[in-house]
Amino acid sequence: MSAPLVDIRNVSHRFGQLAVLKDISLRIEPGSYTILLGPSGSGKTTLLSILGGFVTPSEGKVFIRGADCTSTPPARRPTTTVFQDYALFPHMSVGGNVGFGLRMQGVDGATRAARAREALALVGLGSAFDKKPHQLSGGQRQRVALARALVIEPAVLLLDEPLGALDLKLRRQMQDELKAIQKRVGTAFIHVTHDQEEAMALADHCVVMNDGRIEDEGPPERVYHRPATRFSATFMGEST
Ligand code: ADP
């Protein structure tokens, strides 16, 4: 087996008295699409925030590419997070938005533009460089947010309910897009959702969470057809 890209070892987290993660251990393989699936309040976002460096766990360690990143701040770890509201800068062009992170890294203008064009092409928006965010549809804006994250070339892309703001039809369409983009770039994606269908459509590896613990994990077909626990069986059978 290849070395894990991400190795979460015995992570627990409390907010005050509230234990939200209870001894989580999880390995993420390079190039994989992992879905963290579970009901609201099960701890998915907290785990993603720990991976992104926004929360330091009360206990346990997170290794990325073999390095202990447990307390490394977001800007200094090889992860990028795409949030649900994808917050593009409205006054900047699409190209400016995508190149923004590179500008913060001190990359020169010509290189920034070239890399932003490349990232936009990857998400199927090669012609949107000079547009403003308000000229794009919701799905297109989401793809700009993806391009903006991918242009940094993170080792791991973290997605927090990335399709949550879209209507159901667009959501299903964007699922196929997301999977295709992930396979094209080969970056490991870790994606939080409470939508079982989304998990089935996207995951190489599906992690079912409940009450701060991992109930079940494996290929989505296995988790769906041969769930390891009663919770997993019940939850996988519910539809959104
Ligand atoms: P999920 O993403 O699965 O909905 P979360 O990780 O957002 O779950 O939340 C898990 C639990 O932690 C919930 O009970 C939530 O209310 C609580 N929680 C999340 N963030 C905070 C916070 N910053 N302060 C206190 N409690 C929090």
Helical amount among residues, as a percent range? 25-40%
Bound molecules: adenosine-5'-diphosphate
How many helices? The count is 8
Quick one: biggest sheet?
6 strands, mixed
Count of extended strands: 10
Radius of gyration: 18 Å
What is the arithmetic mean of pLDDT? 93
The strand order across the widest sheet is 6-7-8-3-9-10
Task: Fill in the keyword field for this structure.
4-stranded antiparallel sheet, ATP hydrolysis activity, binds adenosine-5'-diphosphate, ATP-binding, 6-stranded mixed sheet, 240 residues, 8 helices, ATP binding, alpha/beta, Spermidine/putrescine ABC transporter ATP-binding protein
Descriptive overview:
It is a single chain. Helix 2 packs parallel to helix 4 (138-150). A hairpin with a 2-residue loop joins strand 9 and strand 10. A six-stranded mixed sheet has the order 6-7-8-3-9-10, sandwiched between helices. A four-stranded antiparallel sheet has the order 2-1-4-5, covered by helices on one side. With 240 residues, the chain is of the alpha/beta class. It is built from eight helices and ten strands. Helix content is 36%, strand content 25%. The longest helix has 18 residues, at 168-185. Adenosine-5'-diphosphate (ADP) binds next to strand 2 and helix 1.
